[in-house]
Amino acid sequence: MIKRYDIFEWNRFLKPVPSMNEYRKGIMMRKKQTEKVTITDVAKAAGVSKTTVSRYLSGQYHALSDRTRTRIKAAIEQLNYRPNQLARGLKGDRSYLIGMIVADITNPYSTAVLRGAEDVCKRKGYSLMVCNTDNDPAKEREYIFTLQSHRIDGLLINTTGQNNGFLRELANDRTPVVLVDRKMPELGFDTIGLDNEQATSELVHFILNQGYKRIAYITEPLAGVSSRQERAAAFARELTRLGIPADDLYEVDLHSPESLMEKLDHFLTDTEGDKRAIIAANGVVMLKLISALQLKGVQIPGDVAVAGFDDPEWAPLIGSGITTVAQPTYQIGVTAMERIFNRLEGDTSPAQNIHFAGKLIVRGSTPAVD
Amino acid sequence: MIKRYDIFEWNRFLKPVPSMNEYRKGIMMRKKQTEKVTITDVAKAAGVSKTTVSRYLSGQYHALSDRTRTRIKAAIEQLNYRPNQLARGLKGDRSYLIGMIVADITNPYSTAVLRGAEDVCKRKGYSLMVCNTDNDPAKEREYIFTLQSHRIDGLLINTTGQNNGFLRELANDRTPVVLVDRKMPELGFDTIGLDNEQATSELVHFILNQGYKRIAYITEPLAGVSSRQERAAAFARELTRLGIPADDLYEVDLHSPESLMEKLDHFLTDTEGDKRAIIAANGVVMLKLISALQLKGVQIPGDVAVAGFDDPEWAPLIGSGITTVAQPTYQIGVTAMERIFNRLEGDTSPAQNIHFAGKLIVRGSTPAVD
DNA sequence: ATTTATAATGAAAACGAATGCAAAATCAGG
DNA sequence: CCTGATTTTGCATTCGTTTTCATTATAAAT
């Protein structure tokens, strides 16, 4: 089932060594080991054994006399010693590294989450390896391998959903995996994200209450991305429940601008004269949407009301402000990372699915109409 | 000179071990080594020695017979082997890790640079450890230590300028350090950024040519940040050269909104009736500026023209668009990272100072006036 | 067939830190 | 000063690789 991908593509990175002879002659360039100071040096300087220094390093103060402790500390400061995490990791089976695979690092949502995640890592003495996949499953796969090679202690991922086998394998090696924004129930991982049900229904109801009769929903392709699916489904369900046809759900490919334009044209002519509104499924879509509307000379909210998910920093500045549903992004990052540490600390409870409530922020783009 | 900071604060992260006895009993929780497959297993499965497998891993194909190569490859795939980078790094003195210390990860400028940097890393088989300092020198210092402990092979930094001693020390250990956006000439590191001279002068001239008589320049505090200083200096110089008083250079603290409001009030009343413009020194300032102007009910460009540095995604959408000077951010990231690899590959030429030209993007916020 | 170059291989010693085990030092109480 | 408990300490091994230094197989040249 799992495609056995040739993971050793990675050695393509190495320049081919030209010939055995040259190799032998040691021509290869490498970082010269500048008399790096090691635990041995510290031990020598402090007049104790490596063991003792090691104990100091890992905080086993209870096993050290005050005198020794002081001397080691002094030696370390004097020599400017930095313990080698590679060695520590190799022996101790902990790299103090957490991987974070992000679908699109330039998306403000991602960076906000990242920021929260990073703060927690720092607090715990861990560091973050950040990987950007551009939503490309192949890149994602390569990154999973790389991170595995670095023996990360945990992974926070915004997955494309195309590499479940590899993720499962990672988890089998006792590496906690936490999903952000996008669920994959079959994997049984902790998942953190927005309560899409609540958020969507709140937004839809608000818009209808403002008096709009037709609502379009514009989203990136639903295929495989749970958050997109959940929002779209909730949108359709709410409308249907209220007896309104949910025909205007448009999937657009943001890479081809015409795609969006076409859908817009269709909706706008179809609803000519009606009180109508458009919902953008996330911040990126919203940006494109507004750009497209401006290009067509369509007035917001005069000709059409607009609202969307995510609350980008610029939402208040467009016209009289765009109505949005904000996500607690920083909190999502924090919570996700905390799940990882909980797992590392031995929590074996069943996978948790934590969703945060979205917060409706009403602005000028959705005025009440009669 | 260098303050000897107690680097071993870091072991504060470790839970104190309760007592020697308990410790002896091995109560400590640790990740159980699940029969991880090692190079030895691969060697065994392929019927060769570890040495040979290692050669395969590092791409020394010239030293391998086809038969051996095939067998090793098969063994690796079958066993699902992932080479341990910690061990490789320990022995080979290369971690395949590059550190990136960013002042503010939520700033789109930073993420755009990050994206470029990351792409290069990936291409080279390296990974990126990302650290966010929030412009806090203490955090920066801690991160430098941490990264050093992880034996990063290179560092890309957007420095606060308060930890030069430690950066120099890092560089002494033969770790290439490349500065982004902010120069520190005394350190002698490669530096990549915008050509602030050219960019600023181009912008200022454009605005003057459009017919504006008074220009305000709003920037975050200049203290120690070269890019801010360069832009502000260029602004003042250009005006002075043209015989215009450069009085309206305002440093504002973005954390206190009143700070900006005050300066704005001052400038706007002072120039009542004049043709006037305001330049924001970067994207973040611009956002605050526009927000403040909207709050005061000041029309752009009716009451005041606006332009700024960075070209945030939303710049085209505000009113009839905001005029900006765009930086080639992705390119900056790529170039910076390439400098690191050049250094790693042995380039010992003097420090380079690469600045890219900014590109003036004219939009509706700065119309010609008579 | 014998020498001589060259291509393929392997045994064993690092790399820097953590740790099981055992020994040395210290202490409390007599 | 001695005994037994307890606290401190260190030796030697281990983690998974890379690399040095040989050694063995193969081919080319005589």
Automatic annotation (TrEMBL), chains A, B:
Q: Which UniProt keywords apply?
A: DNA-binding, Transcription, Transcription regulation
The record's listing under PROSITE patterns reads: HTH_CROC1, HTH_LACI_1, HTH_LACI_2
From the broadest rank down, the organism's phylogenetic lineage runs: Bacteria, Bacillati, Bacillota, Bacilli, Bacillales
- Record has DNA-binding as a keyword: yes
Name all HTH lacI-type domain ranges.
Answer: 37-92
Under which name does UniProt file this protein?
Answer: LacI family transcriptional regulator, kdg operon repressor
HTH cro/C1-type domain span: 29-61
Question: Is the keyword DNA-binding in the record?
Answer: yes
Molecular function terms, GO-annotated: DNA-binding transcription factor activity; transcription cis-regulatory region binding
Q: What parts of the sequence cross the membrane?
A: none
Annotated SMART domains:
HTH_LACI
Q: Which residues form a coiled coil?
A: none
Pfam families recorded for this chain?
LacI, Peripla_BP_3
